Amino acid sequence: MPLAEESTFPRDPPLTLPLVIIGNGPSGICLSYMLSGYRPYLSPDAIHPNPIIQSRLEEARHLSIIEQDLEYLSEGLEGRSSNPVAVLLDTLLHPNADFGYDYQSVLQWKLEQEHYIPHIVLGRGPPGGAWNNMEGSMLTLSLGDWMELPGLKFKDWAMGKRRNLKSDRATPAEVASYYKHFVKVMGLQRNFIDNTCITSVVKPYREQEESTGHGNGVVVALEGPQISEGTDEPMLKKNWEIQGYQRTADGSHRPFCIFAEAIALATGTFDSPARLGVSGEDLPYVSHCITKFEAAVGKGKLSGSVDPVLIVGAGLTAADAILCAYNNNIPVIHAFRRRVNDPSLIFKQLPKKLYPEYHKVYHMMCAKSHTMASSLHECYTSFPEHCIHSFKPDMRCVLQGTGGLKVLKISMAVVLIGSHPNLSFLKEQGRNLGHHPNQPISCKGNPVEIDPYTYEALKEPNVFALGPLVGDNFIRFLKGGALAITRCLDMRQKSRHRLVESDGVS
User: Gene3D superfamilies per the record (predicted)?
Assistant: First the structure.
């Protein structure tokens, strides 16, 4: 049965849940939506522009996509994700979107409550995750409808919320509000427990039947390995033990300990900004957050005749900072390690027609290099293939390139080179789950290594991951992870039921 409506732990929680979702951002919300029984079907009159996809969908029109062979449906598809199921669901929801088309989704969503899989979603704040902390009015990367979750079109929701509907792009505040509304209107609140901090996720040794007790809404495991009768070996309980605390309205901490057959990591990767690891990085004029830079611009601290702002990084957040400075006539020095023609630059993956402002930044990166003295831009100069050597107390930065060191006077430094997830509750912060076990988990360099059709971690059974943790940084692609996980759990549940029925017959 689902949990109570209140966003707090019930006083008598289930002994063991099929799944606990860690993270209540769009990844966790979307997974909860599908686990709650919402299922995608091919719409009766829908025709996909790709005839091969249309033909495959017609073969099992009566079945939901969750009940079909995802490997077969996604075979041969290409898109802006390395995960095939993510590409599959995206092309069903937004056919040919990367070519600039605005085709309608070919899917319709039906609530089938008999398919509900009990679960809870644990989040550090309200539903929406990191979107609740993204201040400012900068437009989001994606078009508004690419930020939406299944079953509730962003434009329909925005009609009564936005004063200016000319832009298809949305602000972070609008997106955060949309996600909160989505959880409410879809009836998902019963699954969400807010204001939680998870301190430990482990597989304990304990007795199957006698090691679980209740007390004030807390499930507690006996300490130490238990010896099962008739053997000298401790019994390994397959379930996960999740410990932490919930912050209550009066500011106190209420500890909890729950058990789950499986966990889904949906934490995103915005918890800890990546650092350069150079001398002087902790000086007051060096920031690792775009919101601090935007606040300084808003207060007029960087207006007038000032030294340039140094922006480090070649991603979209760095591009946002450059656009903010450019639009406020603040001179910029832009340093990044890659070549301007590096095919892995994110700007080369975005359609120019849909993202003209980001391609404007990319054009400046190419055309306004410090090596082109005759065409130096008065408000922007790029330093490709440069890294930061050090920051000095007198607000000077030392850049290192192929030609040696350069010392530049700056008014502020904004380091925007990515971020890392907070997986401190896992052993070794989850490093064993990545493609490179000796490195921290990161969305680009070392994502969680998963089965592409179930999103289960290859190196740890009953651990699933989705969203940025598996390299799907765009919201439009994380929905595929929710689909794959839901299908996997649904198939296991059906297999278990068949086994029980078989045992009953025998």
Answer: FAD/NAD(P)-binding domain
Question: For residues 221 and 264, which has the higher predicted lDDT (pLDDT)?
Answer: 264
Joined tokens for residue 409? 């006077």
In a 3-state reduction of DSSP, which class is residue 395?
coil
d(CA 196, CA 21): 12
Q: How many CB atoms lie within 10 A of CB 460?
A: 18
User: Same structural domain for residues 429 and 381?
Assistant: no
Cα distances (Å, whole numbers) of residue 264 to 267, 288, 347:
9, 29, 31
Integer Cα distance of 276 and 388 in angstroms: 8
Q: 169 and 76, same structural domain? A: yes
- Global pTM exceeds 0.85: no
Structure-token pair, residue 264: 């889904």
* Residue 229 within a domain: no
Of 136, 168, 148, 171, the C-alpha closest to 33 is 148
Mean pLDDT of 31-40: 97
Q: Tell me whether residue 188 is in a domain.
A: yes
Whether the Cβ atoms of residue 339 and residue 384 lie closer than 8 Å to each other: yes
The total number of residues written for the chain in this structure: 506
Reduced to 3 states, what is the DSSP secondary structure of residue 19? strand
CATH of the domain at 182: 3.50.50
Residue 98, classified by CB atoms within 10 Å of its CB into exposed (0-12), middle (13-18) or buried (19+), is: middle
**What does the longest C-alpha to C-alpha distance in the chain come to?**
86
Judgement on whether residues 117 and 26 belong to the same structural domain of the protein: yes
Q: What is the total count of domains within the chain?
A: 2
d(CA 97, CA 119): 33
Average pLDDT value for residue range 351-355: 75
